[in-house]
Design a protein that fits this description.
single chain, 6 helices
Length: about 170
Amino acid sequence: MTLTRSLHQNHEPFHVAVKRSRRRRKRSQLEALLTGACVAGGVGAASVLLPPLETPASVAQTFLEARYAEDWPAAWAVSCRLAREAHGSYAAFTERLTELNEYSMTPSDVEVEISDAYGIDQPGAQGVSIRYTAKPSGGNHEPWSDWGETLVVLEDGEFRVCIADR
């Protein structure tokens, strides 16, 4: 059956069917363009409005930057339950880390670089070990640096730094 014959069977002239087909195509193109714009707008809005996805490395970075800056509430907030219990209290936690910073003569403005991460799966220690280096930032040329590893665990659906002492 040919196109002309099927159109005539519907009692519609060929030129009317062609016009309707063009209108449908234009409407479909417009709908596709509008859908694409809405999706792009939604992705843009979500990337601005939603908080960034936390990773073990970002949580370790948050903890370490807070520790060196002596931002104790921020460091405590990302500490695991085991670390909190090991310190006994928030006051003991802040006192111990302040002592560590004083002992190591930690500058107040430190830049932390995460260099590596690897999984740990052994009895009593499951998580991600994050290797880091800390150095004075900006124009500060003090002869100071720190490096090491910190354990990040998944606790109650959130990543937490789990070090009791250092």
